[in-house]
Amino acid sequence: MQGTATAQTQATANAQVQAQATADAWTQASVMQRLTHQPVQPSYIFYTVRPGDTVESIARRFHDVAWLIRRRNGGLWTMAPGQQIRVWQWPFGAPYHVIVRTMTDTPRYYTVRAGDTLSAIAAALHSDVGTLAGENNLGASDLIYSGQSLVLHHYTVRLRGALVPGVPASALHTGLLLTDVSNLVGIDAALVKGLVYHETGWQMVRGASGEIGMVQIMPYMANWVERALIGYHVDPNVPVYNALEGALLLAYYLDETNRDAHKSLALYHSGDTFSNERNGIYIRTIESLRDYFYHHPQAGF
Questions:
Q1: Are 147 and 133 in contact (CB under 8 A)?
Q2: What count of other Cβ atoms lies within 10 Å of the Cβ of residue 104?
Q3: What is the pLDDT of residues 252-289, one digit of tens each?
Q4: Domain 169-295 belongs to what topology?
Q5: Looking at the predicted structure, is the pLDDT value of residue 100 above 80?
Q6: Looking at the domain covering 107-153, what would its CATH class be?
Q7: What HEC string does 112-149 produce?
Q8: What is the pTM of this model?
Q9: What stretch of H or E contains 189?
Q10: Which of 28, 34, 68, 196 gets the highest tally of CB atoms within 10 A of its CB?
Q11: What is the structure's pLDDT at 101?
Q12: Crossing angle between the packed helical segments 239-256 and 189-200, to the nearest 10 degrees
């Protein structure tokens, strides 16, 4: 009998382990499906500064951007070991943790009896008249009757961690990649998509004057973005880093022009803010494309 009980206990434990493994696999599959078809929401963690750390070394470790780390953490002109700073979790390629929110409903049912009142029923269900009436679509003039079934929903929210295998950037359609990168940088995705579409139609091409990739960034500007903003070298010939450099450069211009989109686009296009026909045509075209992508956010997913 003892052996039978032990075997049953082991079988129950194995079933629980299998059920948990199935739940974890379902969660990962669900998150992966979302990440390859819907924009990612930037996820951040706190990092404790170690001796010898610099903003640039931390940025390199987390695939973050030194300029954004400073903006996110009050400047960081001085940084000491033990200090906690907020860094992003790079969503492309490397596994990272997410918090999954699930909601379950445990409804309670009550059958109305003769002499019942709504207030008495609400008290018996540990609720209030307004909540009970709302969940049963009862208006102020509605009467309850004997035999009627009422329901009171009870929702429980659970948060659990899940390790997500990072989605390779190459697995994403270009429109979604540009949206994800824009969200990481904190810039209007429709504006970025409009600019990049006007530059190259979202294609990785080399310009006649040496411009690189879909964002058509000049080699010297790519080097400047790496040194002044990112803090370490990335390859602008790789689509995700090309998109990152273009989005960062536009974000920097927006920052420098006090969020003036016209001046920022002119700087991106020609390096100046002159109100001339060349800049004007460029700006109006991108604004038209931005309007389209604003109203069609999933275009290119």
A1: no
A2: 9
A3: 999 999 999 999 999 999 999 888 898 999 999 999 99
A4: Lysozyme (1.10.530)
A5: no
A6: alpha beta
A7: CCCCCCHHHHHHHCCCCHHHHHHHCCCCCCCCCCCCCE
A8: 0.68
A9: helix 189-200
A10: 196
A11: 74
A12: 120
